[in-house]
Every structure is written in structure tokens, then in C-alpha cells.
Design brief:
Blueprint lengths: L2 H14 L3 E6 L2 E6 L32 E4 L4 E4 L15 E2 L4 E7 L2 E6 L4 E6 L6 E2 L4 E6 L3
Antiparallel strand pairs: 1-2, 3-10, 4-6, 4-9, 5-8, 6-7, 8-10
């Protein structure tokens, strides 16, 4: 692929506010990524990534755990808004239909809900982390 096409796709990513783009043409695969620009208005969430953002988790046996995976590419949010309590925490029981998190994709907020009853055994991603399709977000154990 020539430089002009790459520049054209980069401009398209900027215009559409995309953070990733993958193009397959003939036998070539081009993947472009960029960090999301902060909006001019007050942001809905502030990204603060660091050691305090991951929840301390005791080792768990993975044999009985079910994974909740991301159905899309986007930004993972553990709470409905900045400084709010997270939807779930480790050890918390959840019922089918309970909101687990939000994923922002292309400026749309998508609720990710529990598809079955269980207990949050592990939270696998940090608040504000960009997740890919199929990224494991949570591991659910048996309902207590």
C-alpha cells in the first residue's frame, strides 16, 4: 500500500474518531491504531491507569469459571460515570440481566449485562482500558 492511501485512511480515522482500523487488500493486511483524542468538552470519564486501578484478586481455580468477553472494540468503563461506584466488584453476586460494565464504541455507550447468574471471581481489565473483540472482561464463579 502506498503512502497516499495510508494518509487517506489516517485522515478518515481522525474524521470518524476511530481508534483502530484494519484493512485487508489482496495479500496485505494493514492495521492502524491511534489513541483517542480527549474531547474539548468535559470528558465523561477520566483515564487514570495505574496500580490502584486493578482490583486485588485472590487466586481462583479456573476450572469452574465462566468468562464474560467483550462483544466489541471500545473503551471499558467499570462505573456509570466518573467517581461513581463500579457496577460490580470481586465477590459480588450477579443475576442474569445485571449491568456489569459499559463499553464506549464510536461515541456510543453499550451496557454489558450478565447472561447468567454467578459471582464475580475476577475483573480482568482496568477502568478506561481499550478492549478488543473477545477480550475477557470478567470471570464468573458459581453463585454463592
Amino acid at each position: 500500500m502506498d503512502e497516499n492511501n495510508i494518509r487517506k485512511y489516517a485522515q478518515l480515522m481522525k474524521e470518524l474518531d476511530l481508534t483502530a482500523l484494519e484493512i485487508t487488500s489482496d495479500n496485505e493486511v494493514i492495521r492502524m491504531e491511534r489513541s483517542a483524542a480527549a474531547p474539548a468538552a468535559e470528558p465523561r470519564h477520566t483515564l487514570r491507569l495505574g496500580p490502584d486501578d486493578t482490583e486485588s484478586v485472590a487466586p481462583v481455580s479456573s476450572s469452574n469459571l465462566r468468562e464474560v468477553k467483550s462483544p466489541m472494540v471500545g473503551v471499558f468503563y467499570s462505573a456509570p460515570e466518573e467517581n461513581a461506584e463500579p457496577f460490580v466488584s470481586v465477590g459480588m453476586p450477579v443475576k442474569k440481566g445485571d449491568t456489569l460494565c459499559l463499553i464506549e464504541a464510536m461515541k456510543l455507550i453499550n451496557e454489558i449485562v450478565a447472561e447468567e447468574d454467578g459471582t464475580i471471581a475476577e475483573i480482568c481489565v482496568r477502568n478506561g482500558q481499550v478492549v478488543e473483540y473477545g477480550t475477557v472482561l470478567f470471570r464468573l464463579g458459581e453463585e454463592k
